[in-house]
UniProtKB/TrEMBL annotation:
Molecular function terms, GO-annotated: DNA binding; DNA-binding transcription factor activity; mercury ion binding
Function: Mediates the mercuric-dependent induction of mercury resistance operon. In the absence of mercury MerR represses transcription by binding tightly to the mer operator region; when mercury is present the dimeric complex binds a single ion and becomes a potent transcriptional activator, while remaining bound to the mer site.
Source organism of the structure: Sphingopyxis flava
Pfam families with a match to the protein in the record: MerR_1
Domain HTH merR-type per the UniProt entry, residue ranges: 1-70
Name under which the protein is recorded: Mercuric resistance operon regulatory protein
Taxonomic lineage of the native organism: Bacteria, Pseudomonadati, Pseudomonadota, Alphaproteobacteria, Sphingomonadales
Amino acid sequence: MSFTIGKLAAAGGVGVETIRYYQRRGLIGTPARSGGIRRYDDNDLRRLKFIRAAQAAGFTLDEISELLVLEESDDRARVRTLARQRIAALDEKIAQMSEARAALARLADQCAASDKGPCPILAAFEQ
């Protein structure tokens, strides 16, 4: 199947500028023009979907670039290492968000406890 950049973007659930950005980053190739129009194929769509799925799993574009290289080399050990590093980063972010949630919940309780003085939530953000 052949896609224009607009059709590729639509099929991949992204905007045209996202495709162009991925091209500048070297994540997706830029096909030669044929009749003045660049034509993308199923491999480009597969790669775009790979990038989007990897982003959804929390990988950065730099990591995704490495994963795309590793996909061709079948270096499972390195892929596992990247996945474990991403899991550790996600665990850290979850811990930070849990702390932020607990702090905000405490402030909301303090705010609800009294109608006098400044709101503890707003006061905390001013510090």
